[in-house]
Amino acid sequence: MREVRVKICGLKTPQDLAAVARAGAACAGFNFFPKSPRYVTPAEARALAVAAPEGLCKVALVVDADDATLDGIVAEVPLDMLQLHGHETPARVAEIKARYGLPVMKVIGVAVEADLAPLLDYQLVADQILVDAKAPKDAVLPGGNGLTFDWRLLVGRKWLKPWMLAGGLTPGNVGQAIQRTGARQVDVASGVESAPGVKDAGRIAAFVEAAQGVKGGVPILR
Ligand SMILES: O=C(O)c1ccccc1NCC(=O)[C@H](O)[C@H](O)COP(=O)(O)O
Which EC number(s) does UniProt give (predicted)? Predict the structure, then answer.
Protein backbone atom coordinates (compact mmCIF):
# COMPACT_ATOMS: atom_id res chain seq x y z
CA MET A 1 0.00 0.00 0.00
CA ARG A 2 1.39 3.43 -0.90
CA GLU A 3 2.59 5.83 1.75
CA VAL A 4 0.22 8.30 3.39
CA ARG A 5 0.75 11.81 1.99
CA VAL A 6 0.99 14.59 4.55
CA LYS A 7 0.24 18.27 4.01
CA ILE A 8 1.44 20.76 6.61
CA CYS A 9 -0.59 23.96 6.35
CA GLY A 10 0.21 27.52 7.37
CA LEU A 11 3.98 27.74 6.85
CA LYS A 12 5.42 31.20 7.51
CA THR A 13 9.18 30.95 7.85
CA PRO A 14 12.19 29.31 6.17
CA GLN A 15 12.55 27.24 9.36
CA ASP A 16 8.98 25.93 8.89
CA LEU A 17 9.77 24.99 5.31
CA ALA A 18 13.00 23.23 6.31
CA ALA A 19 11.16 21.25 9.00
CA VAL A 20 8.48 20.17 6.54
CA ALA A 21 11.04 19.10 3.94
CA ARG A 22 13.16 17.26 6.52
CA ALA A 23 10.15 15.41 7.87
CA GLY A 24 9.21 14.13 4.42
CA ALA A 25 5.81 15.79 4.06
CA ALA A 26 4.36 15.81 0.53
CA CYS A 27 2.77 19.28 0.58
CA ALA A 28 3.26 22.70 2.11
CA GLY A 29 0.33 25.08 2.53
CA PHE A 30 0.51 28.87 2.44
CA ASN A 31 -2.41 30.65 4.08
CA PHE A 32 -3.75 33.81 2.39
CA PHE A 33 -6.66 34.42 4.77
CA PRO A 34 -5.81 37.84 6.28
CA LYS A 35 -7.42 37.19 9.69
CA SER A 36 -5.40 34.03 10.23
CA PRO A 37 -2.37 33.89 12.56
CA ARG A 38 -0.86 31.81 9.71
CA TYR A 39 -1.35 34.52 7.06
CA VAL A 40 1.47 35.22 4.64
CA THR A 41 1.63 37.87 1.93
CA PRO A 42 2.19 36.73 -1.65
CA ALA A 43 5.76 38.08 -1.43
CA GLU A 44 6.45 36.08 1.74
CA ALA A 45 4.93 32.95 0.21
CA ARG A 46 6.99 33.43 -2.94
CA ALA A 47 10.23 33.55 -0.96
CA LEU A 48 9.30 30.23 0.68
CA ALA A 49 7.98 28.61 -2.50
CA VAL A 50 11.06 29.32 -4.59
CA ALA A 51 13.22 27.80 -1.85
CA ALA A 52 11.09 24.66 -1.57
CA PRO A 53 12.77 21.40 -2.56
CA GLU A 54 11.74 19.88 -5.88
CA GLY A 55 8.75 17.62 -5.52
CA LEU A 56 7.23 19.40 -2.52
CA CYS A 57 3.70 20.31 -3.54
CA LYS A 58 2.98 23.99 -2.82
CA VAL A 59 -0.64 24.81 -2.00
CA ALA A 60 -2.29 28.23 -1.66
CA LEU A 61 -5.17 28.35 0.83
CA VAL A 62 -7.76 31.03 0.08
CA VAL A 63 -11.22 31.81 1.47
CA ASP A 64 -13.84 33.14 -0.96
CA ALA A 65 -11.11 35.01 -2.82
CA ASP A 66 -12.06 37.24 -5.73
CA ASP A 67 -10.27 37.17 -9.08
CA ALA A 68 -8.06 40.16 -8.27
CA THR A 69 -6.77 38.51 -5.09
CA LEU A 70 -6.19 35.21 -6.84
CA ASP A 71 -4.53 36.93 -9.81
CA GLY A 72 -2.05 38.53 -7.41
CA ILE A 73 -1.24 35.28 -5.63
CA VAL A 74 -0.93 33.15 -8.75
CA ALA A 75 1.22 35.74 -10.54
CA GLU A 76 3.70 35.94 -7.67
CA VAL A 77 3.87 32.47 -6.11
CA PRO A 78 4.92 29.30 -7.95
CA LEU A 79 2.11 26.93 -6.96
CA ASP A 80 0.98 23.35 -7.56
CA MET A 81 -2.55 23.64 -6.20
CA LEU A 82 -5.25 26.02 -4.96
CA GLN A 83 -7.17 25.11 -1.78
CA LEU A 84 -10.62 26.74 -1.62
CA HIS A 85 -11.60 26.97 2.05
CA GLY A 86 -14.68 29.19 1.86
CA HIS A 87 -18.21 29.01 0.51
CA GLU A 88 -17.14 28.68 -3.13
CA THR A 89 -19.94 27.09 -5.18
CA PRO A 90 -19.25 24.26 -7.63
CA ALA A 91 -19.57 26.83 -10.44
CA ARG A 92 -16.96 29.07 -8.80
CA VAL A 93 -14.64 26.07 -8.30
CA ALA A 94 -14.91 25.28 -12.02
CA GLU A 95 -14.32 28.94 -12.92
CA ILE A 96 -11.16 29.15 -10.77
CA LYS A 97 -9.83 25.90 -12.17
CA ALA A 98 -10.33 27.12 -15.74
CA ARG A 99 -8.95 30.61 -15.09
CA TYR A 100 -5.66 29.53 -13.50
CA GLY A 101 -5.08 26.09 -14.97
CA LEU A 102 -4.06 24.79 -11.55
CA PRO A 103 -5.47 21.74 -9.76
CA VAL A 104 -8.10 22.78 -7.24
CA MET A 105 -8.85 21.21 -3.85
CA LYS A 106 -12.28 22.12 -2.43
CA VAL A 107 -12.81 21.96 1.31
CA ILE A 108 -15.99 20.54 2.80
CA GLY A 109 -16.62 21.34 6.47
CA VAL A 110 -18.27 18.48 8.31
CA ALA A 111 -20.11 18.29 11.61
CA VAL A 112 -23.07 16.04 10.71
CA GLU A 113 -23.86 13.62 7.87
CA ALA A 114 -25.89 16.24 5.95
CA ASP A 115 -22.75 18.34 5.53
CA LEU A 116 -21.45 15.67 3.16
CA ALA A 117 -24.39 16.06 0.76
CA PRO A 118 -22.56 18.51 -1.58
CA LEU A 119 -19.68 16.05 -2.00
CA LEU A 120 -20.85 14.69 -5.33
CA ASP A 121 -21.27 18.10 -6.96
CA TYR A 122 -17.84 19.21 -5.77
CA GLN A 123 -16.16 15.99 -6.87
CA LEU A 124 -17.42 16.62 -10.39
CA VAL A 125 -15.50 19.91 -10.64
CA ALA A 126 -12.59 19.76 -8.16
CA ASP A 127 -9.42 17.71 -8.50
CA GLN A 128 -9.36 16.82 -4.84
CA ILE A 129 -11.56 17.13 -1.77
CA LEU A 130 -10.36 18.11 1.68
CA VAL A 131 -12.74 16.97 4.41
CA ASP A 132 -12.28 19.21 7.45
CA ALA A 133 -14.15 19.83 10.70
CA LYS A 134 -16.87 22.44 10.20
CA ALA A 135 -15.98 25.67 12.00
CA PRO A 136 -18.40 26.82 14.73
CA LYS A 137 -20.77 29.62 13.61
CA ASP A 138 -19.03 32.26 15.74
CA ALA A 139 -15.48 31.21 14.79
CA VAL A 140 -13.17 33.84 13.30
CA LEU A 141 -11.41 31.21 11.20
CA PRO A 142 -13.21 28.84 8.80
CA GLY A 143 -10.44 26.29 9.43
CA GLY A 144 -7.33 25.72 11.48
CA ASN A 145 -9.34 25.55 14.71
CA GLY A 146 -7.98 22.24 15.95
CA LEU A 147 -11.44 20.63 16.00
CA THR A 148 -12.12 17.03 15.06
CA PHE A 149 -15.38 15.62 13.70
CA ASP A 150 -16.99 12.19 13.79
CA TRP A 151 -14.71 10.16 11.52
CA ARG A 152 -17.35 7.42 11.30
CA LEU A 153 -19.19 9.69 8.82
CA LEU A 154 -16.50 8.86 6.25
CA VAL A 155 -16.41 5.11 6.66
CA GLY A 156 -17.59 3.12 3.65
CA ARG A 157 -17.95 6.22 1.46
CA LYS A 158 -17.30 5.87 -2.28
CA TRP A 159 -14.97 8.59 -3.57
CA LEU A 160 -14.73 9.80 -7.18
CA LYS A 161 -11.66 11.93 -6.48
CA PRO A 162 -8.63 11.78 -4.20
CA TRP A 163 -9.43 13.14 -0.74
CA MET A 164 -7.59 14.38 2.29
CA LEU A 165 -8.58 14.30 5.96
CA ALA A 166 -8.14 17.34 8.24
CA GLY A 167 -9.51 18.75 11.47
CA GLY A 168 -7.86 18.53 14.86
CA LEU A 169 -5.24 16.02 13.77
CA THR A 170 -2.15 15.72 15.98
CA PRO A 171 0.86 13.41 16.21
CA GLY A 172 -1.14 11.56 18.85
CA ASN A 173 -4.34 10.89 16.91
CA VAL A 174 -3.36 10.89 13.23
CA GLY A 175 -2.60 7.16 13.18
CA GLN A 176 -6.02 6.32 14.58
CA ALA A 177 -7.67 8.76 12.15
CA ILE A 178 -6.02 7.03 9.19
CA GLN A 179 -6.93 3.58 10.43
CA ARG A 180 -10.54 4.52 11.12
CA THR A 181 -11.24 6.41 7.89
CA GLY A 182 -8.89 4.79 5.39
CA ALA A 183 -7.52 8.24 4.49
CA ARG A 184 -4.38 8.16 2.35
CA GLN A 185 -3.77 11.90 2.69
CA VAL A 186 -3.88 14.04 5.83
CA ASP A 187 -3.60 17.75 6.52
CA VAL A 188 -2.71 19.61 9.72
CA ALA A 189 -2.24 23.18 10.86
CA SER A 190 -2.65 23.80 14.61
CA GLY A 191 -1.73 20.26 15.67
CA VAL A 192 1.94 20.85 14.81
CA GLU A 193 2.24 24.25 16.50
CA SER A 194 3.47 25.49 19.89
CA ALA A 195 1.20 28.58 19.65
CA PRO A 196 -1.20 29.83 16.94
CA GLY A 197 0.86 30.36 13.79
CA VAL A 198 4.11 29.09 15.35
CA LYS A 199 5.16 25.77 13.87
CA ASP A 200 7.09 23.27 15.98
CA ALA A 201 9.69 21.26 14.05
CA GLY A 202 9.53 18.37 16.53
CA ARG A 203 5.76 18.09 16.23
CA ILE A 204 5.97 18.25 12.42
CA ALA A 205 8.46 15.36 12.41
CA ALA A 206 6.36 13.38 14.89
CA PHE A 207 3.19 13.97 12.85
CA VAL A 208 4.71 12.78 9.58
CA GLU A 209 6.27 9.77 11.27
CA ALA A 210 2.98 8.83 12.93
CA ALA A 211 1.02 9.23 9.68
CA GLN A 212 3.46 7.26 7.59
CA GLY A 213 3.92 4.56 10.21
CA VAL A 214 0.32 3.38 10.01
CA LYS A 215 0.06 -0.15 8.72
CA GLY A 216 -3.02 -1.36 6.96
CA GLY A 217 -5.14 1.76 6.84
CA VAL A 218 -8.24 -0.38 6.67
CA PRO A 219 -11.43 1.47 7.61
CA ILE A 220 -13.19 0.09 10.66
CA LEU A 221 -16.84 -0.44 9.77
CA ARG A 222 -19.56 1.06 11.94
O1 LIG B 1 -5.35 27.76 9.59
C2 LIG B 1 -6.01 28.80 9.45
O3 LIG B 1 -5.78 29.81 10.10
C4 LIG B 1 -7.11 28.83 8.45
C5 LIG B 1 -7.77 30.01 8.19
C6 LIG B 1 -8.79 30.05 7.28
C7 LIG B 1 -9.16 28.92 6.59
C8 LIG B 1 -8.50 27.72 6.83
C9 LIG B 1 -7.48 27.67 7.75
N10 LIG B 1 -6.80 26.50 8.00
C11 LIG B 1 -7.06 25.31 7.32
C12 LIG B 1 -6.06 24.31 7.62
O13 LIG B 1 -4.92 24.60 7.81
C14 LIG B 1 -6.38 22.88 7.61
O15 LIG B 1 -6.62 22.58 6.29
C16 LIG B 1 -7.51 22.41 8.45
O17 LIG B 1 -8.49 23.36 8.69
C18 LIG B 1 -7.08 21.77 9.70
O19 LIG B 1 -6.67 22.66 10.66
P20 LIG B 1 -6.31 22.11 12.11
O21 LIG B 1 -7.55 21.56 12.72
O22 LIG B 1 -5.79 23.27 12.85
O23 LIG B 1 -5.27 21.06 11.90
Answer: 5.3.1.24
